[in-house]
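Project standup — Tuesday

K.O.: blocked on the structure for the chain from last sprint. Re-posting the sequence here as requested.
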Amino acid sequence: MKKIFTFMIGAFAFGLSSCSDFLDETNKSGLTGDTFYATTTGIESLVNSTYTPLRFWYGKEGGATMTELATDLFLKGGDCHHPEIADMSANFNSQSPIIQVYWSRLYAAINYCNTAIEKIPASPLPEATKKLRLGEVYYLRAMYNWLIVETWGGVHLSTKPTIGVQTTSTKSSVDEFYKVIFADLDLAIANLGGRINHEGGRVTKPAAEAFKARMLLTRGQNAEAAALAKKVISDYNFKLYSDYKALWDINNSEGSTNSEVIFYVNYSADNLLNPADLEFDGNSTANAFRPEGGNQLHLMFTPRYDFHAGMILDIPNSIGFQRYACTRRYLELFNSDIDQRYDGTFKEVWKANGGKIGAYTNMIQGDTAVYWSHKALSSSFKASKALKYEVKDINDLYNPDQSLVDFRNFIEMHKHNSTTDRTAIFEFRSKRDAFVQRIAEMYLIAAEGEMKAGNAAEAVKYMNLLRTNRAKAGRTADMQVTASQMNIDFVLEERARELGGELLRWFDLKRTGKLVEYVKAYNPNAKSNIKDFQVLRPIPQSHLDVITNKSEFPQNPGW
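H.V.: unblocked you, prediction finished:
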């Protein structure tokens, strides 16, 4: 099975609802959920529906907005759909559409999982298959609960399916959420047993162990996190790429065959699974959050290169949706002379592809048209290229306060590129699988966990194992670090170099207590607006307005 996605048959056909879903539905078919889920087709459809909400987050604009904006790594681009989040302005509040969408989607996801957990034991599936399916669903419920509790804190915790109108909500503590998360992950690990290889994007035992390692680190169980991360490194066949750029090559974008990928959300080149009517329409509440439409992150970090001499829109360069622009801080974290991750992450050069050359009378088609450098370039170098192509260095791209000179012009974060799998310029959908967990994260968890547990030698060992693999040829010695360099700021720098743009940054800064500090230091758009209470997002006003026990379920502090 290549693709799990089955249009959420099980979940939507019978109107499962969450604590914030107050729509009444009439079933005119006469077929009930209990009847359908008592069949093999029905229960498999229900299990498949528990995967589908991942497509609202991973590979989509909304998930990137919630995790990469208002951090130290990304600013709003020229056509950012959520500038209120990028700037943490007063317009980001409990009525923000993105908050309402994800609240609804994530609680619906929890309800699909709760229903599957209840229905699988009595289903006609073989016992071995029941065990595997329960393992998958327990993992997914842990994932969705993590997104909920880290986004909103101690809100409504649901472990049983709900059907029909729910008019009350009960707040549970963060500790209670994590008690369920860890219990679910333990059950997932036990039930998944020997499944260590990808099966069409289904959850595996190492995926559950890797996610548990992330959760242990989040909760400050550092030695345990390090031990489990090291187990994932040693016990399975995951392998770091020797070429970081190859890791992100579109030809290696199939999660099941990429040696670094532990778990992924699968997308397809088959447009029957990527309906064309669900592309972006500019509506912040709509298509960016739907599960169809393919992976769309290749559009989001791209500038308007076609506004420049020598350049027109084409397939290899994608389309400059310019939602997110790298901060100066992100670019300057890299020593590109020794670390191959800079070249594997960013795009600085565009080749002339038929556009009007204007004043660049010596421009050559097929050669450089635009060069934007993360380094400071000499005036003599710039002068030597004045008639050949456009040159800007980092001081031309950023103002002295680190803000962008032009929100449309920025060095592209290129790791989500989609260059060969699309057949038309305005084909927005990519087959690229969205990588949720990679083995590199396990090295970083092992290093951070051992560092916090006081085991400096082990921390350095795992950090250097990763950095050795990411060194440019002949620069391995330059990439080594010592115990004196190992502190939480260095770990966060390394996580940015390795995992930037992979929908983890907001969570990393929050769990380490660095979110407000880093935004104030490195994000010129949000630094004056961000407040300590904004480590939690606002509960949607639409939910607070409908529940009847308002005094027992107040808004998060500060909002």
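K.O.: great, moving the ticket to review. The longest strand covers residues 261-265. The mean pLDDT is 90.
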